[in-house]
UniProtKB/TrEMBL annotation:
It is a multi-pass membrane protein. This is MFS transporter. The keyword Membrane applies. Gene3D superfamilies: MFS general substrate transporter like domains (1.20.1250.20). Keywords: Membrane, Transmembrane, Transmembrane helix. The keyword Transmembrane applies. The lineage of its organism: Bacteria, Bacillati, Bacillota, Bacilli, Bacillales.
Amino acid sequence: MPMSHEKHHFPNKWIKTKDQQEHSYFQYHEPEEPKEHKEGTLTKQAILLLAVHGLFTAANALSGTFVNVYLWKVSNDLSLIGWFSLSHQVMNIITFWLAGKWVKEHNKMNSLRLGVGLSAIFYLIVLLLQKQAVDFVLVLGAVQGMAAGFFWLAFNVVYFEITGPHDRDKFNGYAGLLGSGAGMFAPWISGIVITQMTASNGYKIIFSISLVVFVIGVIVSFFLKKREPKGTYQWFTAFQRLKEKKNPWRKTFLALMAQGMREGVFAFIIGLLVYIATKNEMKLGNYSLIVSGVALVSYMLMGKYLKPWHRNRAMFIGTLFMIVVILPFFWDVSYTTLLIFGIGTSLFLPLFTIPMTSTVFDIIGRDDESAQQRVEYVVLREAGLNAGRILGTLIFIVIITWSKKPIVLNIFLLCIGSSPLLAWYFMRNLMPKAPEKAK
């Protein structure tokens, strides 16, 4: 298919031979700003992007888990939470696809800011609706999905532009570190606030704090320099790559779907199960403090020591243990077994997510043409993730409507929680092999 992008000339050290392109997908990235890509270091722009990511994550961590709890306390209906999540996921994928034109051809930083701003508006709406929020879960989910779509599309494109294969694992490690730090303290603080005050006032305060943090995130984003748009947005080009038999995106898309199936369900069900088991927001906050503390250490270590050629083995080990920690639920779904699951997942999830994320973005940058279509491929990546999330959430709604027996839910969680094994299977041959020095 003819390309409408401008032709760029790249230094020879970034250009790969045809043989290299067929057998390796991890060495290339578009050298848009070569000075920003120094071995073993993160640039100022990368650090600023991490700061915006940290604020966005912290604001969501303050209230995100408790939004689901708040809706469940009013409705006592797990399927309603499923519909809320499904609305989020559907609008998220639509926003990614439509906003791709804006991000590619105009100012991607405005997309990032709009995402943060819409997140603030989401919590403002919840504050205004209060208990009536349960009557508008589809609208609320759609607003939150739009916010996430605008933010993560711009974030992922900028992330690709300011990192390369040599520092992508490091960036992802720090991003996980910030996310874990936010996950540690934000829900814990929220739990204290809610339990120390009347429930309705406590929820109002944490939702208000989230709104303020989002506003701060918008302010910090103005320190990120404007990145010039390049090329014309191709609405369907990236999706057409899925028809090509030897294109790595065929397996990558299936792997992303498998990853998304677990994410879509576990993102909301675990926090709810902790609250249902304890009936106490403070214990939910303590749970987040403990498991996120473990994740913080794990991400810090993985970001520091994980090398590109370790990804295959690390991803397989992480996947296996993420499945094993679900098994205690068949004994009892209690605070103890949920804590075992949370700690185990926090330990081993970085072994899965860092290789998965880094490898997918390395595939985006595998050659000149692909790198120039980074926006389209980021949209394709999110389409795969959200297709999996939607599928997993739809299955959850069907299962929970059909039967609320614990054994049925446990079998479902084990099946859906095993989907990362499929992700590893599809990605295993696309990850970097060890260089001779490493061997």
